[in-house]
Amino acid sequence: xxxxxxxxxxxxxxxxxxxxxxxxxxxxxxxxxxxxxxxxxxxxxxxxxxxxxxxxxxxxxxxxxxxxxxxxxxxxxxxxxxxxxxxxxxxxxxxxxxxxxxxxxxxxxxxxxxxxxxxxxxxxxxxxxxxxxxxxxxxxxxxxxxxxxxxxxxxxxxxxxxxxxxxxxxxxxxxxxxxxxxxxxxxxxxxxxxxxxxxxxxxxxxxxxxxxxxxxxxxxxxxxxxxxxxxxxxxxxxxxxxxxxxxxxxxxxxxxxxxxxxxxxxxxxxxxxxxxxxxxxxxxxxxxxxxxxxxxxxxxxxxxxxxxxxxxxxxxxxxxxxxxxxxxxxxxxxxxxxxxxxxxxxxxxxxxxxxxxxxxxxxxxxxxxxxxxxxxxxxxxxxxxxxxxxxxxxxxxxxxxxxxxxxxxxxxxxxxxxxxxxxxxxxxxxxxxxxxxxxxxxxxxxxxxxxxxxxxxxxxxxxxxxxxxxxxxxxxxxxxxxxxxxxxxxxxxxxxxxxxxxxxxxxxxxxxxxxxxxxxxxxxxxxxxxxxxxxxxxxxxxxxxxxxxxxxxxxxxxxxxxxxxxxxxxxxxxx
Length: 575
Description:
Layout: E1 2-3, E2 10-17, E3 30-34, H1 36-39, H2 50-55, H3 57-61, E4 67-70, H4 98-110, E5 114-119, H5 129-137, E6 149-150, E7 173-177, E8 183-188, H6 203-217, E9 223-226, H7 266-278, E10 285-288, H8 295-298, E11 309-310, H9 313-316, H10 322-337, E12 344-346, H11 355-358, H12 381-396, E13 401-405, H13 426-430, H14 475-478, H15 485-498, E14 506-510, E15 517-522, E16 525-530, E17 536-537, E18 543-546, E19 556-557, E20 561-566
Parallel strand pairs: 3-4, 3-13, 4-5, 5-9, 9-10, 10-11, 12-13
Antiparallel strand pairs: 1-2, 2-14, 6-8, 7-8, 14-15, 15-16, 16-20, 17-19, 18-20
Helix pairs in contact: 6-7, 12-15
């Protein structure tokens, strides 16, 4: 029982999670995602570059982060924002050179910031030399054996080999023209038609990716975020299935029985990768982007011999509801504690509507990947900003790892007014505009109050336009404002480090504030979130930080607000 000195006599606690006893950086890490195309353009071509990231590392280091995660920067025709890779061991000339990458790693090391790179193992670009050789070699060749080529169905092979649909819309198969000019085999692409899937049953594919891992580990990277880590292996025989590759038509998505996802043999691949990383000094890590439910199944990706972390998409999709947040946090910690792994927490990334927008949509949030356009219901930006700040403060008060998406520390919303003619996401084009895609969350960052691209580009060029009103959300505008979202993130991250919250314990606070209030104690910090409609009386404890400073009496928690209070250290909460 925690006794307070104020008007509330006591707080009843339900212990859930013990303090982490393993002093490893990745178990309590704060990792900042950089989407290079949209971060900072130093050469003025309208596309962000590695040199731009290096130039702004000092400002990122001020957030007290542990690592950067770089979305793909490899050579690519950019049919899918760089996730269509044509060479896994180089840098796209539009983004820089390998020398620029080495300079970035060196500069980050000087600031005690690690660098994690994206790895896209399920598929490559049709421009990759291995796929071009497969096309030229013809059916039955060893070159085609690196990819999923199959003969078509129907009298002349005119029908796809099965009924699978692409994540981006339309069939997951494309027919090729053979070297002699005749219609030929079909190749599988779970994503865009320019992204052929590798055949991971082929040992040569596995050896190639081990080579790629070593190439980047030798250049000093601290690990890899693994794209679509639940894919790679497909069920034998490639059976028909009644859903879409993105699960959009399947109740209970992500999946339970999809033949292209979650096959048991996939774990052998990651066990081998873990062995490769263990050959290098320091603690190099693997983080899975695995859309897997329930959380008890997702925990299979982070057993001690496989991935170190995996994204927690259940938390990302959580509604603005105290009871549901408690349920998801509880199930997350229970599932990951059971296999000795840290949970991770994330609110935004390059594939989903930013949480400052999502939380302003009321009861009709956009689905991941679909985006919001001018014809859709528009968010309440004021409400979204309030809730986003509160949600961020709650997240940073949880034990485990945290992933931040570039610009969320500025409170950036999605660009919900992008016109059709500027959209570039393949989802939009493959579905004829039925699904808008992810361009709205990938808009280039604002750095300054003025200029054609608000400091993003040296000459004002920008591959996607910024929305009106972003000048006051720029880093320059927020830097010296103590009430800004940037100041909130800086303060929260400093306190998180000082109080050991990332490796801390968690106990739920019962009977405080009613059903709309969520309360927890992590080490010596009491975290309270109010998702209800009425103000809540607070314990008489010192205030460390609140998401809406200066808007309340000292001991009142407003609706759509989160607060951190100083309390006694509970340390171990387990048995």
